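Case study 2.
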Amino acid sequence: MFEIIVIIAIVLVVAVAIILILAATKPESFSVQRVITVQAPPERIFPLINDFHQWGSWSPYENKDPAMKRSYSGAASGTGAVYAWEGNKNVGSGRMEILDASAPSKIVIKLDFFTPFEGHNTAEFTMLPQGDATNVTWLMHGPLPFMGKIMHVFINMDRMVGKDFEIGLANLKRLAKR
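Prediction:
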């Protein structure tokens, strides 16, 4: 019986060591990016992102918790606009603040997650005209502390968050074409 316990303990120690080694090989930062082409000028897309009150019509995160509590403060839109939320385990809690709004081409947002895991990232939306269409890019990037690296051993952040970005960009495309 003692031999079985020793073998199990050794296997557990080796498994933990492998996880820690894999985590140590992860990069110091992460980024997730998706792009879509929208048949609309940037001037039609920009206000949908620049005003947090509009996010309910396109953001994939708005429907993950129907009872989510939202608050708005700061500027009505653009630089200084703030949006905070508190929700279930699917959305957690956090805060966004627009740091830069360069109409109609770029919006930079400070994105802070408080629960279920703390994270401090940057989201950027760029709108580049391409003839009568616009290439819209949604990028999120930030540091990857060691606990985040351990999580990245088990989850693919690009695939997980990227799906949400694709849904959000498709929603923006549908709204901007109206």
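The mean pLDDT is 93.
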